[in-house]
């Protein structure tokens, strides 16, 4: 199957509202027609599972390894999060999605247009909702609550269900911050929300500005930041992921910075990754915002220049590389001062020992015997370690997911066929695109028994 790709120039990533006005560093040309769906698949070497993602058709899709859609929800998620049954009262197939937005609002990149979020069961029934219209729609605080500040969730980029039944929500907070030149700041806030909708814990990024590792000179640039395109509140950090550390070897060895309840975040705009102590709210570990120049590809080596990272998290216990940090290093353009990748922009997936701060594994397209720039997403994207040692990568800008072995062999590849109109990448115009923010592997046992699946080998197209 082939579809037309609107726009041949993929190098300059334009604004979605105010947050994506950045130059990618070089012109990246692509074909106007290219295959979608599964383009290669080796069942014997791939980790076989479902994959969940939201397409540009504004729907959420669960696909099998042959690209067949086995379930669809008529809502999108930023990101969609299919819950492990243990976190959903034993229910299989429950999912967190966005349920309401301001009509016509561009919510990509911030949560200002996101009015409500919720948990749906396998059949699409809302079992929990937080934000505008919750009580009005469902009439019971035991089912849903409208306890979001200002009546709207304003969730963006991430959320996580906790073992205690509460939900961590990464959201936006627009307010004035002393010391900033801009009158209004688009701040990042984390809420821990109870099932009844009450806020049990809150963390605001600007309260910890001097804990992120900025030099005095960089802090001046941060506080002097202006809104992109000269409009709206200044998005000075653009935190784009949030994850709970979970059980890990570092804490078991006595390093309290890695307490399982602590939270890891990443800032696209400022090029740092940080761990928040859940009890005190203080930043107890950070990577960046300053790095040495990229020093080749040999590993291990000290962490070198990361730009605009996404999906930073510790690899879960029981998986190959457990306890190491896995991050999609976009290599777009960001930082105080700005840094960019140079003449050959290309993304990387990095596995980092968080104690020694050394890169212990990395992936670029060159590891698959391809030109470096053939794997590049200046924004969005994700990477997840799989039980067999492979890594599932979402090259988000191009709507492409693939599984790569530790040696760099691509053993499964899929290109999203779900296109829609978007302001992202159009230079102020609406364009057709299939970009995908994040792709999540879903083990077969997470969904109801009897859900169809196919595992038919497919040679390269």
Number of helices: 3
**Mean pLDDT, all residues:** 90
Strand content: 25-35%
Q: Give helix % range.
A: under 10%
Kindly report the CATH topology: Neuraminidase
What brief labels describe this structure?
Neuraminidase; 5-stranded mixed beta sheet; 461 residues; disordered N terminus; 4% helix; mainly beta
Could you walk me through the main structural features you see in this protein, from its secondary elements to its overall organization?
The protein is mainly beta. It has a single domain, classed as Neuraminidase (6 Propeller). Helices cover 4% and strands 34% of the residues. The strands form nine sheets. A five-stranded antiparallel β-sheet has the order 5-30-29-28-27, with no helix packed on it. Strands 9-10-11-12-13 form a five-stranded mixed β-sheet. A five-stranded antiparallel β-sheet has the order 22-26-25-24-23, with no helix packed on it. Strand 14 and strand 15 form a beta hairpin. The longest helix has 8 residues. It is globular.
Strands, helices and their partners?
Layout: E1 2-4, E2 12-13, E3 22-23, E4 33-35, E5 37-41, E6 50-54, E7 60-63, E8 69-73, E9 81-82, E10 95-101, E11 114-120, E12 126-131, H1 134-138, E13 144-145, E14 155-161, E15 167-175, E16 185-193, E17 199-204, H2 216-223, E18 239-244, H3 249-252, E19 263-267, E20 272-276, E21 283-287, E22 301-302, E23 310-314, E24 325-329, E25 348-353, E26 358-363, E27 382-385, E28 391-395, E29 400-404, E30 410-415, E31 420-422, E32 431-433, E33 440-442
Parallel strand pairs: 12-13
Antiparallel strand pairs: 1-4, 2-3, 5-30, 6-7, 6-33, 7-8, 9-10, 10-11, 11-12, 14-15, 15-16, 16-17, 18-19, 19-20, 20-21, 22-26, 23-24, 24-25, 25-26, 27-28, 28-29, 29-30, 31-32
């Amino acid at each position: 199957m082939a579809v037309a790709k609107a726009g041949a120039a993929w190098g300059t990533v334009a604004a979605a509202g105010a947050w994506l006005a950045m130059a990618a560093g070089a012109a990246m040309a692509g074909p106007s027609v290219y295959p979608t769906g599964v383009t290669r698949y080796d069942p014997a070497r791939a980790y076989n599972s479902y994959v969940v993602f939201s397409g540009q058709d504004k729907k959420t899709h669960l696909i099998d390894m042959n690209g067949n859609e086995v379930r669809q929800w008529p809502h999108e998620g930023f990101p969609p999060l299919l819950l492990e049954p243990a976190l959903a009262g034993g229910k299989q197939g429950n999912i967190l999605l966005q349920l309401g937005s301001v009509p016509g609002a561009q919510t990509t990149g911030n949560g200002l247009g996101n009015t409500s979020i919720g948990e749906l069961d396998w059949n699409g029934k809302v079992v929990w909702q937080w934000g505008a219209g919750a009580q009005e729609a469902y009439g019971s605080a035991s089912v849903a609550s409208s306890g979001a500040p200002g009546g709207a969730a304003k969730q963006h980029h991430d959320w996580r269900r906790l073992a205690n039944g509460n939900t961590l929500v990464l959201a936006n907070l627009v307010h004035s911050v002393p010391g900033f030149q801009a009158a209004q700041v688009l701040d990042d806030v984390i809420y821990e929300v109870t099932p009844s909708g009450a806020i049990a814990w809150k963390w605001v990024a600007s309260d910890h500005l001097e804990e992120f590792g900025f030099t005095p000179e960089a802090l001046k640039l941060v506080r002097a930041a202006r809104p992109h395109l000269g409009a709206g509140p200044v998005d000075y950090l653009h935190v784009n992921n949030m994850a709970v550390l979970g059980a890990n070897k570092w804490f078991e060895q006595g390093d309290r910075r890695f307490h399982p309840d602590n939270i890891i975040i990443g800032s696209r705009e400022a090029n740092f990754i940080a761990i928040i102590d859940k009890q005190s709210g203080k930043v107890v570990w950070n990577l960046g915002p300053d790095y040495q120049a990229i020093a080749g590809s040999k590993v291990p080596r000290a962490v070198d220049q990361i730009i605009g990272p996404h999906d930073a998290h510790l690899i879960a216990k029981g998986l190959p590389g457990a306890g190491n940090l896995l991050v999609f290093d976009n290599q777009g353009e960001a930082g105080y001062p700005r840094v960019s990748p140079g003449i050959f922009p290309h993304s990387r997936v990095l596995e980092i020992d968080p104690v020694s701060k050394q890169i212990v594994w990395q992936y670029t397209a060159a590891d698959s015997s391809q030109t470096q720039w053939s794997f590049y997403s200046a924004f969005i994207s994700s990477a997840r370690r799989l039980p067999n040692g492979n890594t599932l990568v979402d090259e988000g800008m191009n709507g492409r997911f693939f599984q790569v072995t530790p040696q760099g062999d691509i053993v499964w590849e899929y290109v999203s066929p779900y296109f829609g109109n978007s302001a992202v990448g159009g230079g102020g115009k609406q364009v057709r695109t299939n970009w995908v923010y994040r792709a999540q592997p879903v083990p077969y046992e997470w969904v109801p028994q009897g859900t169809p699946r196919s595992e038919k080998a497919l040679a390269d197209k």
